[in-house]
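Q: what sequence does this backbone want?
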């Protein structure tokens, strides 16, 4: 009996050791190569393939220091856990190229004093517990360091945009020189442009790029090192400026044209007039027509108006809303977008003949629903008017177009407006050689509107920022960040329906239940009557 007990105990120990060994091997393998399944539509709880590519491309050690206070209120404990989960996944793909530390600066008085210089301040958080309210000063930030370069995320309030912020910071610190985005505006005084109209968009771009406000008075040298040039509301464009812009494109520069063909009259509500811009012939030569009209659509966003003492919100057809099927599903710039809103925008069209003859490629990035139409001549912007249009005039109308290829210069068969290009003071190089054909493939994006990225409209329609940033990213860097930014759904609008279908659904809702009850009652009555007859006959 004793021998049997010893044998049984030996077998138990051996089996236990085998199980432990198997678990150890599984744990080791899972640490090196793990697998998880994210069942959400856009995989919002997993890092994107773009982030994985960035992490695999790190050729040295990037250090991430997450500054979180140890004593956190209950509502922030989960936030710290979520941040840790995301960083663990980053570490799994980056391996030894990524060092991650969680630090509580309050435990190190010397570090606590340096936190302001690092760029991670203490934030005040309201704590409600045990029937009393308190205010706590906490650290909720992060720094990303590579060699002598550093980027900071001062405050992490949630993890909705953490992957984009973190990956863009890693990209920025691991690059020798950031790409340069140039803003060129004819719209208002430079002070207004810098501080009032587009400050939110510039701040968003500065997370990844060097952003400059430029002018062309100094000639080509002013924009020679710019990767992508954003032209906002070009109106009084001189021949010299057109020549510089043309040659910038010939040398492979990327351009985004945000052109207002109709502008609102200053100081007057709901009044508009046509703009005589001198950029139309240049863009027409590249294959894009700009039309002097305003686009309307049955699919539109809500707009707020005031009349006397009353304030009201109504669907406003002059603010067409591009929905899912209005985007080119095959292009990464817009394939994952759900909606954007274009306030008081003009239509644009592709010149198919020029595109074919010059072997260019044209893509309609965004267009209205099939229920769009235009207004020309005298513009009536009254939101309370009756918007009538015949069904035969409704159609899809392009709002944003991409043209790519080896462009032919606007000045290929004509004299340049002046000989050479004026150089900036101190530039001793010879004038750039004039090009008649682009040196390599170049791209331009044309949108019939510049208002959609103004600060006021970004506050109402944040999805507009996603669209514009995607355009800049794709032109400048390819697809590195687009897949991260576009993953979260911003809005899920109901599909647009015809008036006939709307009427059918309305009448079904009104009379459908009553008709079903009547039919149910008739069936019950007939069945009861039939049973009674059967009983009577039997």
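A:
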């Amino acid at each position: 009996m004793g021998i049997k007990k010893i044998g049984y105990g030996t077998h138990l120990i051996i089996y236990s050791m085998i199980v432990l060994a198997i678990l150890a091997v599984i744990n080791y393998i899972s640490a090196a190569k793990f697998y998880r399944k994210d069942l959400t539509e856009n995989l919002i709880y997993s890092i994107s393939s773009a982030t994985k590519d960035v992490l695999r491309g790190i050729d040295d050690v990037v250090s991430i220091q997450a500054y979180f206070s140890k004593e956190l209120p209950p509502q922030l404990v989960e936030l710290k856990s979520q941040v840790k989960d995301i960083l663990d996944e980053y570490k799994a793909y980056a391996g030894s190229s990524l060092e991650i530390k969680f630090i509580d600066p309050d435990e190190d008085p010397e570090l606590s004093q340096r936190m302001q210089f690092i760029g991670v301040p203490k934030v005040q958080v309201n704590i409600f517990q045990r029937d009393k309210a308190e205010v706590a000063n906490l650290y909720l930030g992060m720094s990303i360091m590579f060699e002598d370069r550093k980027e900071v995320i001062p405050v992490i309030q949630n993890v909705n945009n953490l992957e984009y912020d973190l990956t863009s910071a890693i990209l920025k610190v691991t690059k020798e020189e950031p790409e340069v985005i140039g803003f060129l505006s004819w719209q208002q005084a430079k002070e207004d442009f810098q501080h009032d109209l587009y400050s939110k968009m510039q701040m968003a771009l500065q997370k990844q790029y060097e952003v400059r406000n430029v002018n062309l008075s100094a000639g080509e040298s002013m924009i020679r090192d710019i990767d992508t040039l954003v032209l906002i509301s070009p109106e009084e464009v001189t021949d010299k400026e057109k020549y510089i812009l043309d040659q910038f494109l010939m040398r492979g520069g990327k351009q985004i044209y945000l052109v207002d063909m109709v502008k609102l009259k200053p100081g007057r509500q709901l009044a508009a007039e046509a703009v005589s811009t001198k950029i139309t012939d240049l863009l027409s030569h590249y294959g894009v027509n700009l039309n002097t009209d305003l686009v309307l659509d049955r699919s539109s966003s809500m707009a707020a108006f005031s009349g006397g003492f009353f304030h009201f919100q109504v669907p406003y057809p002059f603010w067409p809303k591009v929905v899912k099927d209005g985007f080119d599903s095959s292009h990464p710039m817009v394939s994952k977008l759900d909606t954007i809103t274009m306030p008081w925008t003009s239509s644009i069209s592709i010149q198919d003949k020029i595109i074919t003859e010059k072997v260019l490629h044209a893509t309609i990035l965004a267009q209205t629903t099939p229920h769009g139409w235009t207004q020309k001549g005298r513009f009536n912007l009254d939101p309370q008017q009756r918007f009538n249009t015949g069904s035969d005039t409704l159609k899809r109308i392009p709002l944003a177009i991409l043209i790519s290829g080896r462009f032919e210069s606007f000045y290929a068969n004509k004299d340049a407006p002046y000989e050479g290009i004026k150089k900036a003071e101190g530039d001793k190089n010879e004038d750039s050689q004039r090009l008649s054909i682009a040196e390599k493939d170049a791209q331009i994006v044309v949108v019939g509107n510049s208002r959609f990225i103004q600060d006021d409209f970004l506050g109402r329609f944040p999805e507009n920022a996603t669209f514009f940033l995607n355009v800049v990213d794709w032109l400048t860097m390819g697809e590195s960040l687009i897949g991260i930014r576009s993953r979260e759904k911003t809005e899920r609008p109901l599909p647009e329906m015809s008036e006939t279908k709307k009427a059918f659904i309305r009448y079904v809702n009104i009379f459908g239940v009553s008709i079903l009850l009547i039919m149910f009652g008739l069936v019950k009555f007939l069945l009861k009557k039939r049973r009674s007859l059967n009983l009577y006959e039997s």
